């Protein structure tokens, strides 16, 4: 259920459009139900594709495009790209004497991956929103999106444009991008905008 004024789209995969029903609801509310019958049980097999590739799925989302979802996600982390004095001091030492931007990237990447240990923080909004880059750097631990944000902060401070990029790993099967929602992704890495562009995985 949702407020009637709330824009909510339903995306069905592996199910007929008739599976989506709109039920009677109190004034100002809308109730939608998805009903799927006769789903056969699944027997796991060795090397089978990820279940997302063949199982029916239902997605409700308030985002009407990937662009709107991207803007919303950017708003979750853009102000968390923070450089502390500790980070600035260490960065200066790390890139001192570097022969160019690629050398800076290599040194920054090696510094971050040797300093920060991977620890998952997946509780509540923490499953989506990175911690502040200065907090992750100081604590020396973070998950993929936390470590990526540290890389972004340090690279930008070194004059190199970098961004957080959400990706889907191969073990999860082919990405279904028919509906904009963050559940498509299960990992975060850093995109560096030099030398034609390339990715860094800090984990």
Attribute tags:
alpha+beta, 5 helices, 10 strands, 203 residues
Annotation field: number of helices = 5
Side-by-side strand order of the widest sheet: 1-4-3
- Helix-strand string: EEEEEHHHEHEHEEE
Report the structural category.
alpha+beta
Percent helix range: 25-40%
What gross morphology would you assign?
A: elongated
Please state roughly what percent of the residues sit in beta strands, choosing from under 5%, 5-15%, 15-25%, 25-35%, 35-45% or over 45%: 15-25%
Q: Report the radius of gyration as a whole number of Å.
A: 21 Å
State the distance separating the first and last CA atoms: 39 Å
* Largest beta-sheet characterization: 3 strands, antiparallel
Residue-averaged pLDDT, rounded? 90
The low-confidence parts are none
Q: How many β-strand runs?
A: 10
Summarize the structure.
The protein has helices spanning 66-77, 85-95, 101-115, 133-139, 144-157, and strands at residues 2-3, 9-13, 20-23, 29-34, 57-61, 117-118, 141-142, 162-167, 187-192, 198-200. With 203 residues, it is α+β, with helices and mostly antiparallel strands. Helix 3 (101-115) runs antiparallel to helix 5 and helix 4 (133-139) packs across helix 5 (144-157).
Set down the secondary structure blueprint.
Blueprint (H helix, E strand, L loop, with lengths): L1 E2 L5 E5 L6 E4 L5 E6 L22 E5 L4 H12 L7 H11 L5 H15 L1 E2 L14 H7 L1 E2 L1 H14 L4 E6 L19 E6 L5 E3 L3
Parallel strand pairs: 6-7
Antiparallel strand pairs: 1-4, 2-5, 3-4, 8-9, 9-10
